[in-house]
Amino acid sequence: MTTASPFFLDEVLFVVLPYLAFIIFLLVSIRRYLTQSFTFSSLSSQFLENQQHFWGLVPFHYGIIAIVTGHFIGFLIPREVLAWNSQPLRLYVLEISAFVFGLLTLVGLVSVIVRRVTVSKIRMVTSRADWVLFGIFVVQVLSGLYVAVFHGWGSSWFASIATPYLWSLLTLNPHISFVTALPWMVKLHVVCAYVMIAFFPFT
User: For the whole model, what pTM was predicted?
Assistant: First the structure.
């Protein structure tokens, strides 16, 4: 019995999977918008219990918007990020801020999940696909926090390693050499992001 080589697995996870994820996201989103546009909403859960919904979503939204914005900035202007991080104090401020926003995201996410589990009216309108997405999201946030704690200075290595890899995907000339040597938890964080993108239109 033969097993897949590490190189083959890296090719699947960091070349095939990202393109497949974005294709699925686009095709399913377009099909769903054309045939089931009314499903692009979470208004039902908001109306069913708006106050608890508010306290769950406020930290989640603040946290996730800040984290996604930080990743986007690192992707667009990596040199400026590295220049900012050249001063230790500024690097510490950025890293600590990112970790705090990650914790906010986790607190909000847990609150939303607990609400979905404990409130029968909300549980009834939560699909299996929603639960799968929540599970993926939990793994994504926890792996991100783990990376922040045990593989520090993530803003710097994202700008210097992940950004060139992502640009290589965008230019249809993927170079997985940027990511193959990364720790396994970082790889899990990246793969989870692709899986989430692919699965999101189904929820």
Answer: 0.85
